[in-house]
């Protein structure tokens, strides 16, 4: 198939493009490189040994979107494009609502116009908010989200539900990620944020590489075994494979509307993650304990049974592999 991947130069998008190409699909990437780098395209092509088609532009730009659908026979869309920093979204909520929500609407309007109705959406476990307790399963309530970034994901999910209710000819799959970390094992692809990292793993790896002096751990007085927050970390290569599995199900079973968690079903604390990284890297991670961060929940991990049953998806890689691949990426880039 010919797959349009919005945000295909980003962290998760780039790894997914490699797996799509490896599976024999053609890939069209649409990205504006606002939080990624143009050299990612050549790296995707080097790993996969195949070319991709690239369009540079903004997801809200109707003219570019329509040109993509005019010039390519698109069979399905995987939608990653969006801003993803919780802290930035709190400071600049309008930018997040404009980019993420209006971008998704613009994409769906273009898909509707060109009769492309297969969509996989990159959502987040943040949509569960404070209404649910771990392990989170897909039937739990969503919406009580405590930051604008998470609300954009929730709003887009609701929009997609409405689209499907109005026109069941759509095939829509929502994938709720937990905490992606790791990198491609050949160290050509990894998480390479512009500026200071917002996510914990690139921050840890940059402290290990002496690019940053210190990691701040936000709170050590949570009701967890060591007082720090517990999260479900999933290797980005496993996560990318989840998209391939979702695409296969959508095509072979004529889709419908589905929601799946993508996680490992196991939680690790911040301090456990630091120790695991120190073990594989041989580097001391300098950190200090800071105050709690507003909106952080003590324990977040997935119930993965639905994805295992419906998609045949189960994460393969453990925490040490995630840390090893991240460190190899950091050292080589």
Could you characterize what this model shows?
With 333 residues, the chain is α/β, with parallel strands linked by helices. Helices cover 41% and strands 18% of the residues. The longest helix has 21 residues, at 93-113. The model has no long low-confidence stretch (mean pLDDT 95).
Largest sheet: 7 strands, parallel
Number of strands: 14
Oligomeric state of shown chains:
single chain
Q: What percentage of residues falls in helices of 4 or more residues?
A: 40-55%
Shape: globular
Order of helices and strands: EHEHEHEHHEHEEHEEEHEEHEEHH
> What Rg do the Cα atoms give?
19 Å
SSE-based structural type:
alpha/beta
Unreliable stretches covering 5 or more consecutive residues: none
Head-to-tail CA distance between termini? 33 Å
Q: What is the averaged pLDDT score?
A: 95
How much of the polypeptide forms β-strand, as a percent range? 15-25%
SS field, number of helical segments: 11
**Order of adjacent strands in the largest pleated sheet:** 3-2-1-4-5-6-11
Question: What is the gist of this entry?
Answer:
This protein is an alpha/beta fold and 333 residues long. It is 41% helix and 18% strand. It has helices at 11-22, 39-48, 62-71, 86-91, 93-113, 148-166, 200-208, 236-252, 270-281, 305-311, 319-332; strands at 2-6, 26-31, 53-56, 76-79, 118-124, 171-177, 179-181, 215-218, 230-231, 233-235, 257-262, 268-269, 287-290, 299-300.
């Amino acid at each position: 198939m010919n797959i349009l991947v919005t945000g295909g130069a980003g962290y998760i998008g780039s790894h997914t493009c490699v797996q799509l190409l490896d599976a024999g699909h053609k890939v069209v990437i649409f990205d504006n490189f606002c939080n990624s780098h143009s050299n990612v395209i050549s790296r995707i092509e080097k790993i996969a040994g195949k070319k991709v088609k690239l369009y540079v532009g903004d997801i809200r730009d109707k003219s570019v979107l329509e040109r993509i659908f005019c010039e390519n026979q698109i069979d399905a869309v995987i939608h990653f494009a969006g801003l993803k920093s919780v802290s930035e979204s709190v400071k600049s909520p309008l930018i997040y609502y404009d980019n993420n929500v209006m971008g998704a609407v613009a994409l769906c309007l273009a898909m509707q116009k060109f009769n492309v109705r297969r969509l996989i959406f990159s959502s987040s476990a943040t949509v569960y908010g404070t209404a649910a307790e771990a392990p989170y399963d897909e039937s739990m309530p969503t919406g009580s989200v405590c930051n604008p970034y998470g609300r954009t994901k929730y709003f887009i999910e609701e929009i997609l539900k409405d689209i499907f209710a109005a026109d069941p000819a759509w095939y829509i799959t929502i994938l709720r990620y937990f905490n992606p970390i790791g990198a491609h094992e050949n160290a050509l692809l990894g998480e390479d944020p512009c500026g200071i990292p917002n996510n914990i793993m690139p921050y840890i790896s940059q402290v290990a590489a002496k690019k940053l002096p210190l990691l701040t751990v936000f709170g050590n007085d949570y009701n967890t075994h060591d007082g720090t927050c517990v999260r479900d970390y999933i290797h980005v290569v496993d996560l990318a494979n989840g998209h391939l599995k979702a695409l296969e199900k959508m095509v072979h079973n004529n889709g419908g509307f589905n929601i799946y968690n993508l996680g490992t079903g196991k939680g690790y604390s911040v301090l456990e993650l630091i120790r695991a990284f120190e073990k594989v890297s041989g580097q001391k991670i300098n950190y200090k304990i800071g105050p709690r961060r507003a909106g952080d929940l003590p324990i977040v991990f997935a119930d993965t049974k639905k994805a295992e049953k419906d998609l045949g998806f189960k994460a393969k890689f453990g925490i040490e592999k995630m840390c090893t691949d991240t460190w190899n990426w950091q050292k080589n880039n």
